[in-house]
Amino acid sequence: MDDFKLSQTSTENTNLSQGGPHFDPQLMKQHQDADASETDVNSGYFLKRPFDLLLSSMALVILSPVFLLIASMIKLTSPGPVFFRQERLGVNEEPFLILKFRSMRSGSEKTGSQFTRSNDSRITPVGKLIRKTSLDELPQLINIFRGEMSLIGPRPYVGFELKDASPDIRARRSSVRPGISGLAQVSGRSALSQATVIEFDLNYVEQCSLWFDLKIVFRTLQKVIACDGSN
Question: pTM of the prediction?
Fold first, then answer.
């Protein structure tokens, strides 16, 4: 199956690394001034929450041995916490703490670039494996269970990634819960420019439904099996 397409593509090859909060208060104020309630969300969106709650609770139970194994590997091979927490923008740009398995040396976000690249020396051996297989994203099932995220949706951004987006675009994009995977992630991921990612996000908001989510889930599973994760 081919990736989903948009008319505009780019080949920027940087990924956001693990780091601290990067919110611009002025940008947040601009967004709050926009009327997010006017956003027209496809009615299929409202079927997503029961679906998310059911799947996340089942997955947390079924995958608990995997959680335990990865947590043990991280603790045994690298000093520091098992989980990485970072403040991100959620629905209506409400901040929340996203959870990931820690894949970099503890404190590395304070000593290097905010972007990771291939063969980044800050990534631990276990981290390299779980990033390549996207297993580092599994703790976000907890975010889904708590209602902060959805299985499918636009990825939750750090504030500076949206600095060039208008208040209207930000309001439309944040009218749905962010997801573990999304339209942009199965359509190029780090090979897309930030502007193109936002185009995919808006496209998803316009047509999101349970059926559309299932198609993205299928495409995501293909990429996970192919180990087409981040660097």
Answer: 0.76
